[in-house]
What does this fold into?
Amino acid sequence: MVTVTSTAKKVLLLLGTVTLLTTASFSSYAADKVYRLKLAETWGPNFPIFGDATKNMAAMAEKMSNGRLQIRIDSSNKHKAPFGVFDMVKAGQYDMGHSASYYWKGKVPNTLYFTTMPFGMVASEQYAWFYHGGGMALMEEVYSPHNLLSFPGGNTGVQMGGWFQKEINSVDDLNGLKMRIPGFAGEVLAKLGASPTNIAPGELYTALERRTIDALEWVGPGLDLRMGFHKVAPLYYTGWHEPATELQFLFNKRSWDRLPEDLQEILRVAMRTASYDMYIQNAHASAEAWETMLNEYPDIQVKQFPESVLTAMKTANDALLAEHAANDAQAKKILDSQAEYLKKARRWTTISDKAYLNSQQTAE
Amino acid sequence: MVTVTSTAKKVLLLLGTVTLLTTASFSSYAADKVYRLKLAETWGPNFPIFGDATKNMAAMAEKMSNGRLQIRIDSSNKHKAPFGVFDMVKAGQYDMGHSASYYWKGKVPNTLYFTTMPFGMVASEQYAWFYHGGGMALMEEVYSPHNLLSFPGGNTGVQMGGWFQKEINSVDDLNGLKMRIPGFAGEVLAKLGASPTNIAPGELYTALERRTIDALEWVGPGLDLRMGFHKVAPLYYTGWHEPATELQFLFNKRSWDRLPEDLQEILRVAMRTASYDMYIQNAHASAEAWETMLNEYPDIQVKQFPESVLTAMKTANDALLAEHAANDAQAKKILDSQAEYLKKARRWTTISDKAYLNSQQTAE
It folds into this structure.
């Protein structure tokens, strides 16, 4: 199995005659060229799951490159700009970033479409769209003018619809509802009369407890449990707005181009694996946390929005997207690609995963 | 970003004084140590999707190692032993294999449990079990006495229940049914009066056309379309018996131990990524092929086994597994681990993927 090529053998023979250099320093010539990359992440230090994706990626890259790649991860407590990751990586202040594409929609509107969309694809469908359905090329089209490369950075799977204090039985119940729900899903709810707000994570629990807000969405059991929301808003609604939230690795294109091809491939594969791995890690963490919630917090009730509410949300969602498409040819191209892929992929999901899960006894 | 260490700089300075060696041959010292690995796969040459997983893995490993890893892939037309992969890798005749764990159950019974189980976990649940729920350690326990390492090697997602000529409306309809359905699922059906058989892939279409068999299962639209079964048995039943078929990379432990740590990590990550990638590739291929089937073959009808039939299959399945567990302490340990994990993971899947998919309009 192990083969030393004839060139290498010759070099070894010649080495015997070179007394200036020891074998150790000699072989370190290629191995010691270290590339140090700096990565800024949106998350705070030790943020679970999301932060594990960057650590996992960096550890794989370092080991696979035998130490030639060294990635320093700066959390938001260090760089102080959780939502400045796009700008810092674009400017070359950082070589890499870890964040989420939809955070940049105020700056570059069409970045919105590369994280997840309400009523959109689930994780397996969306990865298939990225890697086989044209998604990566469309993402490149959006990021390339900013000298940035963007890669999938970890999926949460279906996010829960959020924690509520009162049941939502009709569209009227959304009227005036104060809910922490940022981004595009917030716009959808605003169209139905709700008052979406954004509040810093550290203040969310108090805001919910003091009824400053009536409801909020976060992620899913794996990240929600430690936030304690279930103690003050025990109605846990199932998801509609983020069926496959995909985080993002950003790369400054000049930093990327400076790397030798083998290290580029090591990084490409490490990012790709870390992204899939986070999807699986979050599935595990959610299963564990949900079991804890079921055992220790019997007040929690799982609720689903009634069909009339979901239909109204979907109508509002479609109207907003139609506006986007009408105003921007690139947006139209991306939205058309996603809609077409979703239709095709969901037909298959319907007779595979959905049919299978529905044929099994509920595991309660 | 790019940093040349001081050691490397010193070596470069010294190099100027060494006239015996050119810089090119010098730097090739470390880079030219090529490790050649031979991989035997169960599949024939150019077998789609399954065969792409090995090619994808080998290409990533070669690029990431800058050519230091060279993997030669031998398909079954070369080694002539599609079901001899376990033995050939164990004996060191091949360094690696690509196959499926459940093929070895006649040789090492407890290998059965590391591919997929009827009524078992779906892909996200099973990957979570492998990587976070103790699955990898249990698999190592089974393979390690054979000097083999086993890694996930690509998932098909939910496999379809197969192509039938007549409807199955009751358990009685299974009585005497001649069906190509190999492995453990065949044993389950045998308990219900069916006659499971195995037939070489090349003869399947003719056997079905001539009514030598009444039904068969293969994989799913992505691999079934080119086989043409839909032309002679147009009832396409949804799946129950292989909800997350995971292929397998095998590694001879001595071959593995001889590799430097960086190349081991490159291979570990390349196998892990290729495995996830195949899951996504098959989801895409199935969506595409299913669209073709819907458009071009209007005779195809999707069917689900009635609840009474599924319940009888589940009862037969549980009885067989209880026998396995009663006869073998290791089997009991693995089955208990899977049952416990499935229960926990499915509770989460039920309020995430399942609830979401059921809340969406059926995509037809």
